[in-house]
């Protein structure tokens, strides 16, 4: 990732120390010891203790505070090294021309900026103070501060996005983590866990904003892309160069129109930051950097920010002749490099090599550090080049199957096509080996279908009909979803409803009125409480193919 050159207390906030609920030892486990599993202040759990204390002092919901940190860094402070946006510590306190949460935290807490950068407890405390100051500007009272959902606008602001669409993308990710629950292992071996919890986001002015689809400056919008929305963020924009990708234009000051050389290379980067934060940074005129594409860790979602035909500023001497792909994460933490990310990025690179006749070899698909004149180290030693190149070359590893269809056909032995590939991928994703995902429904796939059906309590006939499709498409985490939610879990819900109801439910990842109506129809038809909210009972019905 290219980097640009570069003690206040609220009334009623409790004094910590003697009033803390327990005196905990701030020490990492000895080498070889099992990780400390801390869901809130367990002994030998200094990071969790820091969250507990900061949450209490500034009256920020503790699990929400942890979710912000998890979304920013997976609770890894990276030894005090700055991110692409000059952010520091587990909470990514920033120090750049347009977002200065580090300086804000110093004023609010009385801590020095050096302490806030380098000390985890101070860093967490600083983030809590900044979030509380934003909550105060929203006039949240004590009761509202206890409601994690009421903090949504404060969380969106904390992300530092330069436009509402990216701010919502950031905040939605935090609330998805909070809803699903998560567990992170710190570099010192402490495990910090947040269990699933309901938190209905009160989006306020972001309610009508579509994530990462902000108004695109006319000078930066593709001529053949869909028109930009006339009101902020009401319409999703898709890439004109790579249809599976979203489009969120970088600011025109961060790239050069046109090219001075043909495209001959693909450059692999790691963001040293989050997906939403990177997109936001490229849309900020102060950044003076960009890349053509950004790939999300959790699900492989791709956003294009610069047209292929234009010169993104990502690799110095390599800019004129290359396409740059940023991957969410940090070079020193392999947990960010998920299977979904590898597969999605490889599919994008295959597309680029086909389109621009680029050889699929390591001389033409290179890391940032391999471009002459660059000093960066990404993608780093944790990037699995052998795996990535196998996927790029498609050596027995197909690109992710298309999962979204207007209707789902009944499949059985002898069926072929894209829907068979989709079923095979879903079976494989959930631990039922269908053999090669080749789009041919053979004996191995039939056996996997029967095993899946038996596992879900369905008739094990080896036929993928509406009930089996519903169970396959809905399988996974079960966050509570309601109108206003967005993201991959909503897409999964929309696919399952399309199969279950036998009618098309728009699969756009946004839980709007039509999705709510489809949920109520499903609940009514299955004898469930008809409230339009997808909670545990509705998920259970979907995942058992009712």
TrEMBL record:
Record's keyword annotation contains rRNA-binding: no
The residues covered by the N-acetylmuramoyl-L-alanine amidase domain are: 251-380
Q: Name one Pfam family in it.
A: Amidase_2
Q: Which reaction does it catalyse?
A: Hydrolyzes the link between N-acetylmuramoyl residues and L-amino acid residues in certain cell-wall glycopeptides
Which residue positions does the secretion signal occupy? 1-33
Region of interest: Disordered: 210-232
* GO biological process terms held by the UniProt record: cell wall organization; peptidoglycan catabolic process; peptidoglycan turnover
Q: SMART domains, alphabetically? A: Ami_2
Which stretches does UniProt call biased (Low complexity)? 217-232
GO MF entry, a single one? N-acetylmuramoyl-L-alanine amidase activity
User: EC annotation?
Assistant: 3.5.1.28
Q: Which InterPro entries match?
A: Amidase/PGRP_sf, Amidase_domain, Lysozyme-like_dom_sf, NAMLAA_amidase_2, Peptidoglycan-bd-like, PGBD-like_sf, PGBDSf
The UniProt keyword set, sorted, is:
Cell wall biogenesis/degradation, Hydrolase, Signal
Q: Which family does it belong to?
A: Belongs to the N-acetylmuramoyl-L-alanine amidase 2 family.
PANTHER family (UniProt xref): N-ACETYLMURAMOYL-L-ALANINE AMIDASE AMID (PTHR30417:SF1)
Q: Which named protein is this?
A: N-acetylmuramoyl-L-alanine amidase
Organism of provenance: Streptomyces carminius
């Amino acid at each position: 990732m290219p980097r640009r050159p570069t003690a206040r207390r609220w009334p009623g906030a409790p004094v910590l120390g003697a009033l803390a609920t327990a005196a905990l030892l701030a020490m990492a486990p000895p080498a070889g010891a099992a990780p400390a599993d801390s869901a809130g202040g367990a002994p030998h759990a200094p990071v969790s203790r820091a969250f507990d204390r900061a949450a209490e002092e500034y009256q920020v919901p503790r699990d929400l505070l942890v979710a912000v940190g998890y979304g920013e860094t997976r609770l890894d402070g990276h030894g005090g090294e700055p991110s692409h946006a000059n952010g520091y510590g587990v909470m990514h306190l920033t120090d750049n021309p347009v977002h200065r949460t580090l300086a804000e935290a110093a004023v609010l807490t009385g801590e020095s900026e050096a302490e806030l950068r380098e000390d985890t407890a101070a860093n967490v405390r600083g983030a809590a103070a900044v979030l509380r100051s934003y909550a105060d500007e929203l006039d949240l009272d004590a009761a509202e501060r206890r409601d994690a959902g009421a903090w949504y606008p404060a969380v969106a602001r904390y992300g530092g996005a330069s436009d509402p669409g990216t701010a919502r993308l950031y905040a939605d990710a935090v609330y998805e983590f909070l809803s699903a629950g998560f567990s992170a292992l710190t570099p010192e071996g402490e495990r910090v866990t947040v269990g699933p919890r309901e938190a209905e986001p009160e989006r306020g002015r972001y309610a009508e904003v579509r994530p990462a689809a902000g108004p695109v400056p006319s000078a930066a919008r593709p001529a053949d892309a869909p028109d930009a929305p006339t009101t902020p963020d009401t319409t999703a924009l898709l890439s004109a160069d790579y249809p599976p990708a979203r489009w969120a234009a970088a600011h025109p000051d961060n790239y050069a129109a046109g090219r001075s050389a043909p495209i001959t290379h693909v450059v692999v980067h790691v963001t040293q930051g989050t997906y939403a934060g990177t997109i936001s940074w490229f849309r900020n005129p102060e950044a003076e950097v960009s890349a053509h594409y950004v790939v999300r860790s959790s699900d492989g979602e791709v956003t294009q920010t610069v047209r292929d035909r234009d010169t993104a500023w990502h690799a110095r001497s390599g800019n004129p002749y290359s396409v740059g792909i940023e991957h969410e994460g940090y070079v020193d933490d392999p947990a960010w490099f998920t299977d979904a990310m590898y597969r999605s990025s490889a599919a994008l690179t295959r597309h680029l090599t086909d389109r621009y006749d680029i050889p699929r070899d390591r001389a033409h698909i290179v890391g940032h550090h391999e471009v002459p004149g660059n000093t960066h180290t990404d993608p780093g030693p944790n990037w699995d080049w052998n795996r990535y190149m196998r996927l790029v070359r498609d050596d027995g590893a197909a690109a992710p199957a298309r999962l979204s269809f207007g209707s789902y056909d009944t499949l059985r032995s002898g069926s072929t096509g894209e829907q068979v590939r989709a079923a095979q991928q879903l079976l494989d994703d959930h631990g039922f080996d269908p053999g090669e995902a080749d789009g041919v429904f053979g004996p191995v796939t039939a056996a996997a279908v029967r095993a899946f059906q038996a596992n879900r309590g369905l008739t094990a006939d080896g036929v993928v009909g509406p009930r089996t499709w519903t169970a396959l498409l809905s399988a996974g985490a079960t966050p509570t979803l309601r109108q206003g939610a967005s993201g991959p879990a909503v897409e999964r819900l929309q696919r399952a409803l399309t199969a279950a109801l036998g009618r098309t439910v728009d699969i756009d990842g946004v839980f709007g009125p039509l999705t709510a109506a489809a949920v109520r129809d499903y609940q009514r038809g299955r004898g469930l409480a008809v409230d339009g909210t997808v909670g545990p009972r509705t998920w259970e019905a979907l995942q058992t193919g009712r």
